[in-house]
Design goal:
Layout lengths: L2 H4 L8 E5 L7 H17 L2 E4 L5 H11 L4 E5 L4 H6 L10 E4 L3 H12 L2 E4 L5 H12 L3 E4 L6 H10 L7 E4 L2 H9 L9
Helix pairs in contact: 2-3, 2-8, 5-6
């Protein structure tokens, strides 16, 4: 773990919430997602997910393969509901917390629990995740690719009045993650 990141948060490890669509990813997007997970683990940050399929599952896979710590918050009340009602995976997470709050409640808990967010490929539902983080005044990173909402997210963020210094746009996970971690204020303590 990079020791410069350890000093940002009391207790040692900043948490990064990664969000993206549950839809199937093509091979290029899956590889970029795994690289993002590798980079999060490499820096020693804790990956926090909504235990989704698709993009987020590949990020969790990449972080787990690198030996990173991966925590998930489920919208379900228990493991049976997680699998049967929501159809969510159980793999690649060290721990899954069953919130019982559905998707909206789970997403609010993710926004409040994480120190920063990274938005991967996305659709309109992920604009909600961005708005939660903007409201929480936490740093956000956008993994640039030919996603559906790249330009729309940039416009929303600029129009929100947030300082550009809180937002990182980059197509390279190995540049995006350290740049995002450097924006977590030292006063934000776990």
């Amino acid at each position: 773990m990079n020791p410069s990141f350890r000093t940002k948060i009391r207790g040692g490890r900043p948490t990064i919430f990664v969000t993206g669509p549950a839809a199937t990813c093509n091979a290029d997007i899956a590889e970029k997602a795994r690289a993002l997970g590798h980079e999060i683990a490499h820096t020693g940050a804790v990956l926090l997910t909504g235990t989704a399929r698709g993009f987020v599952a590949y990020v969790a896979e990449g972080a787990a393969a690198e030996g990173g710590m991966v925590f998930g918050l489920s919208p379900a009340s228990n493991v049976d509901e997680h699998v049967s009602l929501y159809g969510l995976p159980l793999v690649h997470h060290d721990t899954i917390i069953y919130t019982g709050f559905g998707f909206s409640g789970r997403d609010m808990m993710l926004a409040r629990s994480a120190d920063a967010v990274i938005i991967g490929s996305g659709d309109v539902t992920h604009a909600y995740d961005v708005m939660l983080f903007l409201r929480e005044e936490k740093p956000a990173g956008i993994l640039e690719c030919p996603w559906l909402l790249d330009d729309t997210l940039k416009t929303l963020i600029v129009m929100s009045g947030r300082p550009e210094s809180d937002i990182v746009f980059d197509a390279d996970p190995s540049a995006l993650v350290p740049a995002l971690l450097s924006r977590i204020p030292g006063s934000r303590r776990a």
